[in-house]
Amino acid sequence: MKRIFFPLSVAALGMTLSACVTSSQADAPSLGKRAVEGRLDVAVPQPVVAPPGPLPNDLAGRLARWESDAVAAQRAFATERNAAATLVAQARGAAVASEAWVVAQQAISRMVAARAPLTGALADIDRLYVSRSIEEEIDGMPAIYALRERLVEMASGQEAVIAALAASLPGQ
Predict the structure, then answer these.
(1) Of the candidates 24, 52, 124, 159, which lies 20 to 30 Å from 59 by C-alpha distance?
(2) What is the pLDDT of residue 44?
(3) Which stretches of 4-163 are assigned E, i.e. beta strand?
């Protein structure tokens, strides 16, 4: 008896639901486009932003000084790199804290010190970039950004050389 009751109740429920669907379909609104739709489909106007102007005169001198400091630091670093590479090569088979190892570490330290003007200039230009960005002073920003990118590239190259030489020493 339970078997007959269950299919009959499902069938009765199905007929009830189908009656609801057919009666509500007649009352349902059309999904077609209404006359009011599309009135607000207009392009959003793009704000006019003035392009950045030239670098202010007071900053041009600072950028030139930072660039010359970076170039001088790059030359000093190259000189120290050549000396350090020789000393690190001599210390490759030496024990940690041996005389050759200490001399090679000192040479790497001199390389790090030689790049100080570059890292100082990079820090100064980063401060300038951030302060001008916060104050929304865009004049000269392309020149500032271009110099910053050159300094970052120099610093990254130097960091890679220092890491490679330090990694080739025992105990690193």
Answers:
(1) 159
(2) 81
(3) none
